[in-house]
Structures are given as structure tokens and as C-alpha cells.
Description:
Helix content is about 30%, strand content about 25%. By secondary structure, it is of the alpha/beta class.
Amino acid sequence: MNVLSAEFVKSASEPDGYPPPGAPEIAFCGRSNVGKSSCLNALAKRHALARVSRTPGRTRLINFFDLRVCEPTRSGNRGREHAVRFVDLPGYGYAAGPKAEKESWGGMIERFLTGREPLRALVVLVDGDLGPQDSDGQMIDWARSLPARLIVVATKLDKIARTRRGQRLENIAGRLKLSPETVLGFSAKELLGIDELWRAVVGAAEAGE
Ligand code: GDP
């Protein structure tokens, strides 16, 4: 996918702070350190996109980005254009964090995921090297009841030998009780899986239009 523009919109914690509905939204979540910023930067082809989400004061907030992309064509002409809004949700799995903080995090995420009309898909990133953790399983089990599509991305696949990657993805899908095609392999380091994830994102964004 060719990225025409990628811009930070705003940060918010509560519904009255969300931007007014615009393009179809795709939310991204995962445990801290799973590779979410690297994945967003790789998708947006902007090294600093998710850096915004990391600036002090924004790491625990919901960050919205607007992207315009177009499909590459053989002729070099501009292909079909798509507008999509990425929603970067704060990382979970602060096992050592204070209970009150975990509860406020949960409330913020739940309000967004259950109440946001333009939301079309939730991308849950799991560490493809470490395998799914309890918090990933809980997030995915909870997300099954959402109307949004569920896309699971196994990150850092470069850490797994090429010959074992297919088996690893099947294993992750099995442990999460998902069909194998729901789990997409990804590596920001090897730029692996970017087109496939874009296809899933655009497909979800435009479903039902
Ligand atoms: P976030 O906390 O989920 O936003 O994760 P980051 O994108 O900041 O990445 C966390 C750590 O994992 C950093 O040290 C990254 O360099 C590393 N990382 C992220 N993506 C990849 C990847 O595709 N391959 C490898 N080997 N390391 C990665």
C-alpha cells in the first residue's frame, strides 16, 4: 500500500475527548513491548508516527491517527484510495502496576471498544517469539463478543527460523482458539507481513460499505 498521508489527530481518554467520527477506525492493542509502535510505523511508513503515542502524557491515552493510502498499480498511476483512522490503545500487561491503574485502563479501553460507532476492527498484537500470554488470551476472549472484526498479528517473527514460522503461527492460533487464517505473521525488522496486514485492515474498514 502506498501511504499518501499519516497524521496525528488527537489523544483522549474518555468519549467526550474522542475526535468526531471520520474514516472507519482500526484499533491496535497489545502488551507493552509487543512491538505495537514498530508495527504502526511500518504500516504507516513513517518512523515517527507512533512516537507521538510515546510522548510523556500520551502513553496511557488513546491516540488517533488519520491515514490516506492508495493501492499500488502496475502502470504507476494512482490506484484506489482508502481513508482509515488508526487508534493506538495503550499497552496492557502492567502486571506489577497498581490495581487502580489497571482498572482505569480497563474502563477506558472497554468504553472505547464497546461504544465507538466507526470502529471496524481490533488488531491484537501478540509476541510471535514469546507466544500468547494470559493477558492476550483474556483480551481476545473478551473481544470475540465485539461487532468489530478481530485481527491477530504475531510480531517479531524474524526471531523464529523461517522453516518454523508456519508452524508457530498455527500453534499461536490453536492456543488462542482461532482459525489459522486469523493470525497474521509480522516482522517490523524484516518488513514481513505489511501488505497482508494492510489488506486485512482495508478489508475491515470497507466491509459493509
Ligand atoms: P511497543 O511497546 O509495543 O510499542 O513496542 P516497540 O515497537 O517499542 O518494540 C518493543 C521492543 O521490541 C523494541 O526493543 C523493538 O526494537 C523490538 N521490536 C519491535 N518489533 C520488532 C521486530 O519485528 N523484530 C524484532 N526482532 N524486534 C522488534
